[in-house]
Amino acid sequence: MNDEIFNIALRNALSGIKSSISDLNWSFILTNDGTVVTSDDNPVGSNMTHAASSLQSLAEKANTIGGLDNVLINGEKNKIYVSSINDMYLVAGLAKNADLVYFRTITSAVLPTVLKVLDSVTSSLAHDPAPFKPTPAFSFPSSRSPKPELLEPTSSELTDNQEQAVEENETPEVEEAEETEEIQKPTLDTADEVDVGVDKQPQELPSQQLIVDRFSGLMVKSDTVQLDVEILKRWSDELNVDNVDQVDVETFSGKTVRCKAKVINDPKLEGRGLVRIPEKACQSLDVRRGELVRVKPVVPEESD
Amino acid sequence: MPAPRKKVVQVDVEEEQVDWAPRIEEPSSIASLRVSLDRIKSRPGIIGYIVRGPTSASVDVKDPSKIIDYAALSAEAMETSDSLSESFDLGKVCSIVLEGKNAKILLFKKGEQELTVFMEKSVDHNAVCKELS
Prior knowledge:
heterodimer; A: alpha+beta; Beta-Lactamase; Barwin-like endoglucanases; 3 domains; six-stranded mixed β-sheet; five-stranded antiparallel β-sheet; globular; B: alpha+beta; 5 strands; 27% strand
């Protein structure tokens, strides 16, 4: 079961990375047990097994230089970049002129985070034998009404709830809801750190992990972040509102800031899965460029 | 009184060469490559190099106990890159950079010669590649 979850999550991560890097032709992950994990739209499937065995023997020989950290093969047409991530290898086929720094930034932020989240999820599943069910991305409007006991729990409350779930033999619905909570918010911090002005929202709100791009300037408002137009449009469609004007930016250390949301005004940065955060907001969130944050839309209050 | 004549002494520098590879007449381009390699090797952070030709190979590594390991790694890296290039249609391989926890190696072909330069991770391998190409 754990392997299955790992593979699905890694496959989705690879698909996400591919969609955000136009110069990435294909990619697959070689896990430490020899499994090859790849995205569904990988055009090089048949060659992966052969490549995997070549890389494994190279990794063995690389003990001379302290193990294989990364390999770059520059070809006349394309290039291959292999990087070590938590005892696994990410193998990527890139265009000849691909921006390797950008690729490294994204992969080094996304994959370790996915693996870390998976570790925490699977370890909690080990304690709770309830079957894992994938969390729906968004269930609206039937489950929109907030469940007070599940909203914004502290990390200590989460742990307590998990223990209670095992001890008190609760109903399956409640267990499932708690699992959902864990997966969506793997590193919730204490409520004290959350902005006092932040309203509690239903947990089923759409959210997305995005890569931080810091920006600054004379005319930059420190309370306004920039997002892809597609993301804002999708959220407004899902929430059935005209515009998403505000978002909550949440770091994996639990810090949250509510900001106004605008569309990314630099065409070069569109569609790359970025959230552009002003320098001051970055400082208050304690995030740096290239790190991952979770961005959630704020539902405007109904005015009737 | 005539000035004393300066005595010119010519010293032939013996390169370390594996005993199983026959020494052949080197064209001038290969000789200049060796000169470049020797110059680079004296720089801080460079661990050594391996040059493999069709009929000969020479190894110059600071730590002789690692010569076999380095040679095996170099050959494996070259083989892997050829294999991956063929599998994934990379075209002719221009260069390979293999980075480990302690050191990194740069591999590329120059004519019929396969060059492998071992260096510390702080060394700019692009500059080394540019100088030797």
